Every structure is written in C-alpha cells, then in structure tokens.
Amino acid sequence: MHSRPLLVDFSEGVDRKVLKRITDRFRTLNQSRLDRARSALTWRQQIVLDLLPLVFHLNHPALPGYHAVDCPHGLDRYQPSDLAIHAAQRLARSFRVGSGRRTPAELTGLYLMGSPGSLGHSVASDLDVWVCHHGDLAPERLAILQEKASRLSRWAAEYGLELNLFVFSAEDFRQGRQQAEVTGENCGSAQHYLLLDEFYRTAIHLGGRYPLWWLIPVDEESRYGELTRFLLDNRFVRSDEYLDFGALPSIPVAEFLGAGIWQLYKGIESPWKSLLKLLLIECYARDRRNGLLSGDFKKAVYSGDASVDSVDPYVMLYRRLERWLQSQEAPGRLDLVRRALYLKTGLPLTRATETAGRWQGRILQQLVSEWAWDRQTLSELDARHQWRVETVADLRRRVVSELTHSYRLLSRMARSDNVRSSISTADLNLLGRKLYAAFQRKAGKIEIVNPGIAPSLAEENLSFCQRTPATSHPGPEGWLLFRNLDRPADTAWQSPIRRAGSLVELVVWCQCNGLLSPVTRLNLRQEIADTEAATAVLTVKDLRAMVGFISQHLGIPRPPSREALMSPVRPETHLLLVNVGIDPQASLTERGLHKLSDQHDSLGFSGGRDNLVATIEQVTLNSWREVSLQRYVTGDALVQCLKNLLALVARDPASAPVVEVWCAGGSHSRAISHRIRELVEDMTRQFFAGGTGPHSLRYLLKVDRRWFVLRFEGLEPGFVGLASDDDLMDYLAHPQEEYTPVVPDRYAMQQDPAFRAVCGACQPEVIQMFWQPGGRRMRFWVTDETGSLYGWSQPWSGSRRQALLPLMRFLESLAERRQLRQMAGAETPVAELVCNEVIVEDGEARLERTPLAPESLSLDGMELQAVGVQQGDGSLRFDLFCDEQEFSFQEYGDRQMAAVAHYVRQGRRRGEDYPIYLTDLHLPHDLDPQMWQQELQTCQYVWYRQQLQLALNRELGLV
Fold first, then answer.
1. Buried b vs exposed e over 330-358: b needs ≥16 C-beta within 10 Å?
2. Helix spans in 287-330 (H)
3. Are strands 127-133 and 777-783 parallel, antiparallel or unpaired?
4. Contact, 549 vs 516, CB < 8 A?
5. For residues 124 and 564, what is the distance between their CA atoms, to the nearest angstrom?
6. Would you say residue 337 has pLDDT above 90?
7. What 3-state DSSP class applies to 44?
8. Angle between helices 46-57 and 139-157 (to 10 degrees)
9. 121-138 residue pLDDT tens
10. Which residues pair with 194 in a beta bridge?
11. pLDDT tops 50 at residue 596
12. Rounded to whole angstroms, how far apart are CA atoms 190 and 274?
C-alpha cells in the first residue's frame, strides 16, 4: 500500500486527485482481498464468484439464475472482465457478450461481505452478498429479482457453496426500512449500525458503485451527511459512481441488546464466530472512546499503513479484543478468544502439508508464536475431529458461560440506560425461544453437548453398565457409560463418560449427541445383587434393537426451523419404551415356566389377569427439537403415561403426535407393543375424533383386576381407579353435568358382550332399561338422560312380568314427576323411556325392544315407598312406608329393615318367597348438590332404590 498519508480538508476545497487516490487505495486493497477470497475456493467453486457480477449485469438465458425476460439487470459502471467471460463460457461455450442497445442499469452495487478474503474464512464459511438496486424498482419486478437470487443460491449449492443473497436498495437501508424477518443468515431487526460497521470493514466490491463512505475522513464522520451532499452537489464525485449506505459515527446503546441476542442465536450452531462477535459487541459497549473497527480500517487506509495483512478483518478484530481484555485483566477470556479464532480458521498448523504456502497459515503462525503456544496445545486443537465427548462438554460449558456472561452484561447496560432494544418484539420472541430450546435446563431434558464444537463424537466401543444396591463395587446405583471397557472389574477405577438413572436415558443421550454410529460396538454389563428382584439381565441383542428403534425415530435432533419457533411448542414424536430391564413374570421365567391361557390381553394376561406392562419410559421430541425423557415405574405406569399423552394431544388435537412403541425382548414383547399402540390409537380416536376435542366421554380400561376410568375436565385428563366391578357400577351411576357416554376399551369386556352393548346403546335425553335373563338371576342396567349408567343382578323365578314391571313403573313414575316439576304452565313432553332385552349369541350381543307394560296392568302385592331425609351430620336416612304402615328411622333406628321385613313376611301367604321391590322413592333435592345440577338424575334414584332393596332382601334371606 501507499506509505504517504492522504488528507482531505473540506474547509479549503477538495482536490479531485486526492479523492481519486483514496478510491484507488481502497480498490487496490479490495482486489487483494478478492484474490484471497477466490484462492480459498476450489477451482470448481471459483466459477460462482467469477460469474456473480456478470449474471446480475446480463439477464442472459444461458447464464445461471435466469428467471424472466423482464428481470431487473445492469450494474452501474460494470464492464465484464475476461475472468467473468471465461467463467460464462465454461458453462455455455457459445456465450458472447452482446453489443446491442444498452438499457439503463437497474442495479447499483454488488458486494461480498463477512469472512471471505480474511483469516476467518474456512471451507465451512458461507458467502454473504449484498445485491443493491435502485430505490424506485416496482414491487413486482423486485419479486422477480428476489426469485433470481433464490435460484442462484440453489445453483451455488451444486458446487458445495452456501450463497446468501440479500436484495435491497441503499436508500431503504440508510433510512432503516430494511426490517427483514430473522432467518438463518438474516439478523432481521436485531442490528443495523453493527451490520454497517461490519460491512464497511469487510466488504469486497464485486461490481457497481463504490461506497461513498470511503471518501469521508474518520475525524469528519460526525459531518457525514453535510459532506456527502457537498461532494455530490458540487460534482466532486459522480452520483452513478458512489453509493451511500449512511454514516457510522457510533453504535446506539439500544442496538447492543438486540445484537447480543442475535449472536447468541447464531452461537448455537457456530460458537466460535459468534463468540468473537459477541465479545466485540461487549467491547464496543464498554469501551466507547476507542471507536469502531471500521473507523480503524479507514484510518489505516488514509494513513498509508493498510497492508492486506494488517487490516485483515479478523486480525483487526483479534487485536481490538486482545487490548481490551488485557486492560480488563481477563486472561481466561483472552485464552478462549484465541482458541475461538484458531478453531474458526480451520487451519491445522501441526499438519504442514495442509498449510504450506497459504497466506492464512502464515498469519496464523505469527499469532500463535506471539501467544507462545506449545506443540501439545496445537496438537489438541488440531485433533478436533477426534475430540471425545468429555472435552467437548467442558468446552461447551466455557463457551455457553462466556456467551451468557456477555449477554447479561449487555442486557444490564440496556436496562441501566433505560433504553429499549432495537430488536422487534417478534424477533425478540423468536430468538428467545431458540435460546430457550438450546440452553435452558429443565427436568428430563436431554442436554446437547456439541453445538458445532466438534465435527463428530462417534465412538468405536461403548459399554453400558448397571449397578444395583449391594453390588461389590462402591458408588451410587444406576447406569454408567464407559468407553473401551475391557473387563467388568475396570468399572471400579475407570471414570465413566456419563451416569444416568436408566439405560434408556443413557442411550437417548448418546443418540442425541452423536456417540452412536452404525459401526459402534456395544457391550452390556449388569451387576445385580438381589436375585429375587424382577430385574432381567438384558442381552446385547436387546440393546442393539433398542438403539435401532431410537435411532430410526429420533435421529440426531437438528436446530428448529423459523416456522416451528414462530408457533408454540408442541410434541411431534413420542417413543414409549416398555419393560426395559424388567421382566414382569420374572419368578416364572427363572424356573423356565410360562403361563398358558386363553386370556391374551397384555393388560390382563392369563387366569391371574397379570399386567405385563411394568415400566414405561417416554422419549419426546417436540417442534423446537428438544428431546426429553419421562419415566413411569409405579404400578399404574401405563395409566399415568396415557393420561399425560392425552394432555399433550389436547393442546392441538388437529396435529396429534406420532406414538411409537418398543418393548424389551421376551415372549410377549410384540404383543405388548401392539397392545399399547392400539390402545393409544383407540383413545386418541375416541377423545379427539375429527381432529377436535377433547370430547366428553368416560373411557373404561381394565388393567389386571382393576378398572380405570379416564375422562377430561376441560383440557385436563384425569383417571379414577376402581378395585372391583361393583365399584365401577357405583362410579358410573354418578350424575353428569352433560351427556357423557361410556366407551369401553376393546379388550375391557370381551367376556361380557352384554355390558358392551348397553354402553354402546346410550343416548342423550333418553332413559333406557336393559335386562338379560340367565339361570336363576336376571341382570339389569339403567342408562339415564346424561349417560349415567348403573347395573345389578337379582334373583328371579322365571316370571318376566314380576321381574320387569316394578322397575318399569318406577322409571315411569320418576319421568312423570319430573314433567310435573318442569311444566310451569306449559306442557313438556315426558322423557322417552325405552326397554330392551339383551340377547347374547355366539359371543355377540344384540338388543331387542321390549314393549312397556300397559297402564291397566297393576302391580301385585304391597306398595313400598321410601322418603329420604337429610340428617344434620350430612348423612341420608330413609323413612319407609309399607302400604299405609310407617317405619321411620327415628323410631326404629338400626332395627328399621328388620321391622319392614317382618311386616312383609307377615303379609304374605305361607311359602311365598320372592324379592321385595320399591315402588316409589323420594330424595331430598339438596342431596350431594352440584353447582350445575338443577335436579337429581334418574340413576341417582335407581342407585338408592337398589341399595334399599338389597338391605331389605338381605333381611328376607333372599340375597
């Protein structure tokens, strides 16, 4: 570069020759950077960089990106170079630059910015290009230009290059109207002046106008607007020769917080580059007296000290951070900066064949010599592709600590200065969600330890070892992960890679962090002391099968898309791993025995109704690409798991997550997996039919000998456990706020098709009575207007009239009384009463309508009525009336039922022996009142009637 300083004194007039020499210095430096950027690409990739100016200057069908005949084109003051023409002819041999009529240029500038041409450029770096157009371009033509840019990005990808083209006008940028949304490479509203600072010190001019900022001395930056108008108005420079992106006197405080969040966002996948930039932002914010790097760059050009090495963007960045951190006496942070810069370059200095003759290697070697790094330090950094997970995890903690430290300082400064962040609310929420998903710790979440730090963490040999209480080796129980474990005894002294409470947790952690590969050798060691425990010794075959299942459905989680982050988080995939390390029939397995039975339901297997689902470990992948683990190990593991799955579906029924099931090896593993998958599908279909819901219903599930009823209260599912069939009937008789049908699980009542038919026949606002004769007993069910259901059985002598008529009359009486209470001057139709016989043939049930008894058909025998009386302690007692004889509880107390039974027995002929039935029942209206309940429901009356009849018939000796 020139050694003589250049001075521009606007107070005494401007020398055009001085302006030209300033531009020439920038152009010379620009060409050197462009040559370096080109040399960093492969010969095949260089065509992309060589062609870019030409494809925007000409809208030629033979060139890449061609989209439409009226696509904006033409770069101001651009003349295709021989290099560009040769590159075009490599693609289309017949290509020639036409000499036809020239149209006015519609594009003002093309600039490559960022790391290309600098020490920080590596094979993994992308190319960020600004495509600037005239400010008066019509929106529809701008859309065509943006489509061309998208096509060019896809074309560059074919050469292994990530090309990001940003299309806008300098006028819009200068006025702050460039408010793009945050994407992978676009900082959106997060920063403006920091981006302009980076542009001015890193941009490589590819074509079009030069930045007008070049011509304003650093000490005149505060008069930027005045001086640029002076140059243009007095025609010291031509308007089509320079492009104005605006002044850069300093960074507003409001921008630091938004920029800090953006760099944290980028740091999730690119920690080294983001670490350097975030520290520069902190340096700018805390050391505002020393100005910006772009000012240092321009000052060096004006002074004549700007060699291409000394003003290398990353060298300048490092020198600024070095001076600042040394003044802060922060050697630990400075060491991390040096490591970040070294790793960002991707140049292994210990491998001379890869760095020989490269200008980047020469600069980096000079820096490393200044840092006095020894050979061991370099070897460790150069062996990045061989780093183990422990090294990566430790380095990640340092990186995350540094990133969050810088962000907190910037956030505190923004609050203390009482300024709002320059980032928009939408972008702030978006970035915050990504940071939360990447760094937030929470119960059950699987930690990702390799956010772009090492290329691979795959291991050749992994051993999963279990320790149970009272084993020979000291230490806490659980599962441990080892590398290259030769002997089980080595676990006593060898440090594990990781500890976990379960084998599934260890395997999922390995999968998410890339330790597992198709060629990883797996070993399994189990130290089991309690021989009576139901813990099965897993096999390596089981382990490989589980790894394959998790790998197939989980993969290695990638960062979430912008679209996913813009929406609330939702589960996408649930993996249910059943009975891992547990044999629910361990006592039989140890003796080589297996139960044989025609009961094949995995939740009620064999005559003992054994539940074969002992434990479930649920792995969840959500839309923000977080992976979490939840364990269910109690006796009700399956029901608890189902409850939580339903709760997750209820948040977004239209997008139910995928559920996959895997069961550990054993004779029943496939049946168990199929049963659970089937159960989840059935419940999801019932509660969320049509992609809406949750619908109001009671789902009956039988596990071993117990019943579980699952239902929703609003959006929250819950379940009730019931120990017996009688408890189930009592529960189903409870009043309902709205019509709530009973839906049995497909296996719940395989041996009772009659009950299944009754459940399926329920209808809203219809009272139904069902009966099924059999042997010496008859079964009854009543379903009422809201779906409440109650069933029982009672002795019968073979007379249908004697068995059916009392219940028919009782239900008709209830319906008539309800009508009388509801009339209020207008006739209300009596609730429909339906009677059905349940007929079971060949294991299938059907219903046959039974005509109701004529009104003229009277009941034989005594009239027995009961009137409920609410006691002061809340209990309910009954006064009974047999014909006209009263038997009050107050008078008879505990002898009441015996007294009624004696009275009935005295009124019968000798030898008559049949059950007694209540013909009428009155209950207090404040009986166990619900807020929503205006009157008592039919099944409440039926339930109390049956309890009284049982007590009376017990006294008669008929129960």
1. eeebbebbbbbbbbbbbbbbeeeeebeee
2. 293-303, 313-327
3. unpaired
4. no
5. 26
6. yes
7. coil
8. 160
9. 988 789 999 999 999 999
10. none
11. no
12. 14
Place of tokens 């009823």: 709
699 close to 683: Cβ distance less than 8 angstroms:
yes
**Facing residues of 720 across strands?**
709
**pLDDT given for residue 473 in this prediction:** 52
Q: In angstroms, rounded to a whole number, what is the distance separating the alpha carbons of residues 133 and 391?
A: 48
Which residue blocks in 513-572 are alpha helix, DSSP H? Answer: 540-554, 562-565
**3-state class percentages of the chain: helix first, strand second, coil last, to nearest 5:** 40, 20, 40
- Residue 523 neighbours by CB under 8 Å, 6+ apart: 461, 462, 463, 464, 485, 540
Please check the confidence at residue 205 and state whether its pLDDT lies above 60: yes
H/E stretch holding 146 reads: helix 139-157
Per the CB < 8 A criterion, the answer to whether 795 and 776 are in contact is yes
Would you place residue 930 in the very low, low, confident or very high pLDDT band (cuts 50, 70, 90)? low
Two tokens at 203? 């941009």
Question: Distance between CA 118 and CA 273 in Å, rounded?
Answer: 13
Residue in the block written with tokens 């189902």: 642
CA dist., res. 692 & res. 683, Å (int): 13
**Could you tell me where the DSSP H helices lie in 175-252?**
193-202, 224-233
Report which of 655, 693, 643 is spatially closest to residue 569, judged by C-alpha positions: 655
Pairing of strands 107-113, 864-870: unpaired
Question: Mean pLDDT score of the chain, rounded to an integer?
Answer: 86
**φ, ψ for residue 438, nearest 5 deg:** -85, -40
Span 401-430, pLDDT tens digits: 887 787 777 777 767 766 666 666 677 677
Contact 439, 191 (CB under 8 A): no
* pLDDT at residue 655, rounded to an integer: 87
Task: State pLDDT tens for residues 644-702.
Answer: 999 999 988 988 899 999 998 777 889 999 999 999 999 999 999 988 989 999 999 99
Burial state string for 520-556 with b = 16 or more CB within 10 A and e = fewer than 16: eebbbbbebeeeeebbbebeeebbebbbebbbeebee
pLDDT for residue 459 is more than 90: yes
What phi and psi, each to the nearest 5 degrees, are found at residue 542? -60, -45
Distance CA 666, CA 295 (A): 72
Q: How far apart are alpha carbons 511 and 386 in whole angstroms?
A: 18
Q: Cα separation of 155 and 64, whole Å?
A: 7
The enclosing H or E element of 276 equals helix 271-286
Closest CA to 538 of 527, 529, 549: 527
Q: Give the confidence band of 505 by pLDDT, cuts at 50, 70, 90.
A: very high
C-beta atoms surrounding 922 within 10 Å:
14
- Percent of the chain past pLDDT 90, that is, above it, reads 55
Paired tokens of 779: 């079964």
pLDDT band (50, 70, 90) for residue 856 = low
pLDDT at 721: 94
CB of 108 closer than 8 Å to CB of 208: yes
- In the chain, where are the structural domains located? 10-250, 255-280+306-439, 557-723, 725-955
Q: Kindly give, in sequence order, each residue whose CB lies less than 8 Å from that of residue 627, ignoring residues fewer than 6 positions away.
A: 445, 446, 508, 512, 554, 557, 619, 620, 621
Distances in Å between the alpha carbon of 574 and those of 459, 618, 656, 659?
26, 7, 10, 5
Distance CA 843, CA 812 (A): 32
Whether 944 shows a pLDDT value over 70: the answer reads: yes
Q: 865, 856 in Cβ contact below 8 A?
A: no
d(CA 718, CA 642) in angstroms, rounded, equals: 10
- The DSSP code for 687 is H
Q: Tell me phi and psi for residue 158, to 5 degrees.
A: -65, -20
Interatomic CA distance for residues 58 and 91, integer angstroms: 15
Strands 864-870, 876-882: pairing is antiparallel
CB 462 within 8 A of CB 481: yes
pLDDT tens per residue across span 871-881: 877 788 999 99
